[in-house]
Amino acid sequence: MRQITVLFQAPNGIGLGHISRLAAIAQALRSKVPSARVPFLLEGGSHSLLEAASLPYLTLPNNHALYESGSWEAWPKEERYSLIVNIAESIIRRIRPELILFDTIPCIPVVIAAANRKIPAAICVRKVKEMGGYFERLDKFQEQIKCLIIPHETDEVGVPSRWLPRTRFVGRIVRSNPRADVKLNLPAGSKTIVISGGGGGYPNTVDFYNWALTSFATCQARNPDLICLLVTGPLFNDWWKLNLINGVRVIPFDPNLISIMANADLVICQAGYNTIAEVTQLGVPTICVPADRGMDDQYERAKQSAASNSNFHICRASEKDRLTLLIDRCLKSPSTERSSDRIASMGATRAAEALLELITEIPLE
After folding, report:
1. Does some domain include residue 226?
2. What's the pLDDT at 256?
């Protein structure tokens, strides 16, 4: 039987969406072909996401380590760039993947290393603000990229005609359903609010946390049974700026965050792709505070989610008093769509099927 090896390459600097999305696809691929090898090549650490999923990984130095921290100033930038290419080539040579799957923002040295080794590639492309400009930048890799996997429906992303023949729309990609054995172990009769900012690495995420915590304190003064879990994310560093409140438990990160959210009475979050996909899949009552992002339109994503989910509410950062009112309203109102055992989106499975179809077209060496 043909041994299948797919290398998954994900950036991992300020958010966790890239790695968790590819992890969902890797798990779906391994579910279909248990003998498949699904190693990851990361820019930065896995933050226990891959360990929790029993997925193997290797790491590359990230941009901060090589270009921003000052640690490598004795090496010219050209040498640092060549170093990453050489490390990537060595890893690819030893792992010998039949295919590499990138996510949205591929590591260019890895792309070059794969091209040097003549390894075909696919890329998972989620919607960004300027899709036209994105595809123009992707054009330079048109010969190498054999498949675009789009984790959206066909009417959500406009794909240029030159890319359409190799495009697969698979729908949203999320991790598997929450684990039933994850319990919050909180006092009986309490109500739990989970505050999450995803990976927590974006600048000014601490402002969102402090605002949400202040609103929670106001609500808790009226309802002492409220408990808050603040999941800062493994990339959060502004600890000295965080204004903690009584009744708040701080969790830097938990790879089973989807299970924690499934057990919550309310989630307060920003509007990252994976966060929104997961909370809407769960049907958990959610207050979303969209944030400004360079590549990402969180406001549009939140608006679309609110239009199709009655448990989903939007509060802009400028509406300071509205967050407290929404918290009270959500905790008093019965949930109409909540379900912790919903069937997970089939996006990851469809993506895995697309990869397997592509691999069968690749001739054996």
Report:
1. yes
2. 82
